[in-house]
Amino acid sequence: DALPILTENVDGFLVQSKKEITTAGSEGAKRTIIERQIKQVKQMNETLQVLRGNVTLADCAALAWRQLHTLFRDNIQNLILSFPKDTKTKNGEPFWSGHRRFPRAIEATAEQMDSNPEILNFLIATTNLYATMFGLHGIKPESQFNDNNSRWKKDYRTTDFMRGLISASNLTPPAFVRGAVGDLDEESSGAASGNANADAPIEELEAELATQQKKAADGANGLCTKAAPIDFEKDDDDNFHIDFITATANLRAINYHITPADAMQAKLIAGKI
Predict the structure, then answer these.
(1) What is the pTM assigned to this prediction?
(2) Using an 8 Å Cβ cutoff, are 112 and 119 in contact?
(3) Which of 102, 187, 222, 266 has the most CB atoms less than 10 A away?
(4) Across residues 157-174, what is the average pLDDT?
(5) How many helices (H) and strands (E) does the chain have?
(6) 183: which residues sit within 8 A by CB, 6+ positions away?
């Protein structure tokens, strides 16, 4: 969400970031905000690095690969490390009880891709969405022109295509780097067993954020790109939007041992949001 703000108005992006930090209600909240912003700006810098070159489909696949591991492996691993299975609340009750389910992380190993089709479904949808945002796919015809016998970008929808791109790009699971768990309520904050930056002076975190922000601002200045945001449209079955929603929801469901849904169920749920 912050990337369009950054590329269109660098100063506005930095002011918005500083305002969020200065309005933090406590030192702990300030630390959490800074840690989250560092993570976000690092991700933006990776995307900006791609945009400064001639964007390829392999670049889009690499970004999708990163997102897969960030969302469904790293975020979950951070949660597990901060809240182990035997974690207790301040009242001595099991933390993982009631509506809370102890999660499991997903990693895109060859074995997991064979047993979990949603991994490849997510990579296919996300790669194609990046390709659309970055102008590689051009403008999709309106949904009234969809043809089930010749779907839009049909050659980029197959698992063979995605596996080939992963192999050709030599994509391997990135190293896990522990980070903070954000947006915790008071009860959860009290039960957490700490995070990767708990002992780092807040001044160090502020300096790291400033370094990453400067890198992002320098990378955005003068950037000429075809990159454009996508407006979500659930009623077009060929634009990869519902494919992305379905795969994303199902991977998160698998994280929490919940039965996955099919595309039609996901579409109906999305229509009610």
Answers:
(1) 0.83
(2) yes
(3) 266
(4) 90
(5) 12, 0
(6) 32
